[in-house]
Write the structure tokens for this entry.
Amino acid sequence: MPTTTDADVVADQVLPLGGPYDPEAIIAAAHTIAELVRRLNHATFDNGAFQYPAQLSNTVGAIRDAVVRLDQLFNQLDNHLVQFAQDPALYANRSDVATEVATARSALSAAAHIAGDLDAAMKTACSSLNRLGLNDD
């Protein structure tokens, strides 16, 4: 059974925690997240995906570990946008830069807020799932 350490090893193959960081590796990590969610969707499609409530609880808890970090990520992405907005070479296709920057910043802020709400909901789900079990018959 894979462990958190296994996840760290796999993640280090895509984007080592200690760097070095480059834009292509960051983009690859984001694509990997999307692909892993797609695979989780496939793996959990059938009702027999889990044998015990604890397995479901552990899965939801691990997903929550990702969700709890999203607000920080969205805020950091916004910080990069602010840096780009200060560059006079920045342009926007078929619009003005200020409008596009403001729209993107607003959306990233909303995403960070929604991530916080999602974390709260998942925390509640985890709390309830942790109290469930199956009787041996």
Summary: Residues 97-129 form the longest helix (33 residues). Helices lie at 4-14, 23-43, 53-67, 70-85, 97-129. Residues 53 and 133 are 6 Å apart (CA to CA).
